[in-house]
Automatic annotation (TrEMBL):
Segment forming the signal sequence: none
All copies of domain OmpR/PhoB-type, residue ranges: 143-238
Protein name per Swiss-Prot or TrEMBL: Sensory transduction protein RegX3
DNA-binding region: 143-238
Domain Response regulatory: 2-120
Keyword Transcription: yes
Source domain of life: Bacteria
Length: 241
């Protein structure tokens, strides 16, 4: 697995690169946002590219958030932000920019390795379609419809049905269901869900999320469809039934 490490502290980078190498990673280290973008551009056009980017936020030439946004506009390579910024707003901002995960320093090396493998597995799970394009699990068909077993979600009309019977949902219930359904099997952090569905911060909104999840499970009559990942958030089951 090829990994791009974006870290301006050489001592930190050397120690981390050594550990990653022992676990079978091929690590390329750069010290600035400009170098990171150049590596990704060259790798995408001429070389084998990278499987994961570990991105520090405190870079000397530009903020890591800006680098993440520019990466996401041109690449689908998984990005894990690794930073000392532990506040909720920074985590939400990073996830909204397209980061696949957010790890706060100091971190446990075993946890970091597990997160790297998790985001790479999700990326590898996108299988090529007959047209040569990547078919992402949970992608809508040409009519904008998602199907999860007996559950059908029509994105353009915002209609949901189970076994052909329409299920009335509130606006937020639909938005929550559509968010999870478009990436089945992927864990969404509570903060990320609150940010994307309610357009606000996690503070004071956690109970609202729990209530909406419970309501969806009840209305769809499939309690196992939305899985709780204890201490993290929720994910859509990979099987609709």
């Amino acid at each position: 697995m090829r990994l791009l490490l974006v870290e301006d502290d050489d001592r930190v980078a050397a120690a981390l690169s050594a550990v990653l190498a022992r676990h079978g990673f091929e690590v390329a280290h750069v010290r600035s946002g400009a170098e990171a973008l150049q590596e990704l551009l060259v790798g995408g056009q001429e070389g084998p590219g990278f499987d994961v980017v570990l991105l520090d936020l405190g870079l000397p030439d530009q903020d890591g958030f800006e680098v993440c946004g520019r990466i996401r506009r041109t690449s689908t390579t998984p990005v894990i932000m690794v930073t000392a910024r532990a506040d909720v707003r920074s985590r939400i901002h990073g996830l909204n920019l397209g980061a696949d995960d957010y790890v706060v320093k100091p971190y446990d090396m075993g946890e970091l390795l597990a997160r790297i493998h998790a985001v790479s597995r999700r990326s590898a799970g996108e299988e090529p379609s007959a047209t040569g394009e990547r078919a992402v699990p949970g992608s809508p068909d040409p009519t904008g419809t998602l199907r999860l077993g007996a559950v059908t979600i029509e994105l353009p009309t915002r209609r949901v049905s189970v076994d052909g019977a329409l299920v009335p949902l509130t606006r937020k219930e639909f938005d929550l269901l559509a968010l999870l359904a478009q990436r089945p099997g992927v864990v969404f952090r509570r903060e990320q869900i609150i940010s994307e569905v309610w357009r606000t911060s996690w503070e004071g909104t956690g109970r609202t999320l729990e209530v909406h999840v419970a309501s969806l499970r009840s209305k769809l009559r499939r309690p196992a469809l939305i899985e709780t990942v204890r201490g993290v958030g929720y994910r859509m089951a990979t099987q609709g039934d």
